[in-house]
Amino acid sequence: MIKSGVDLQWIKPQMALAYTILYGIFQRHVSLPCVITSASDGVHGPNSLHYNGLALDIRTRHVLESMLPLIVRDAKNELGEQFDVVMEDEGGPNQHLHVEFDVK
Predict the structure, then answer these.
(1) Global pTM value
(2) Can you tell me the distance from the alpha carbon of 94 to that of 10, in angstroms, rounded to the nearest whole number?
(3) 47-70: average pLDDT
C-alpha cells in the first residue's frame, strides 16, 4: 500500500525489491498492510537518501509494539548488509520503519 501523496517517481529498483521483502515480512508476522508513508517526497535531513530515491518510510503505528522487534530483525536479515533498517521516532507520534539502500 502507498499512502496518498507519496511520490515514487524517483525510487530506484533496489527500493522496489526492499518493499517486496518488507511486504512479506508484514504478512508473515502481523497480517497487516505494509504502508509506504514517504519515498522521494517529504522533508528529511539534508543528506537523506530519500532525495536520491534510495529510502522508504514504512508505517508502524498499526503494529503491536511487541511485534516491532521481530519485523526489524527479519528486515535486517532478509534485506542484508547493503540496506540500513532503523526504527525512527520510536515510541513517538511519528514512529516508522526507515529503510535505505546504503552500500558501505
Answers:
(1) 0.93
(2) 23
(3) 94
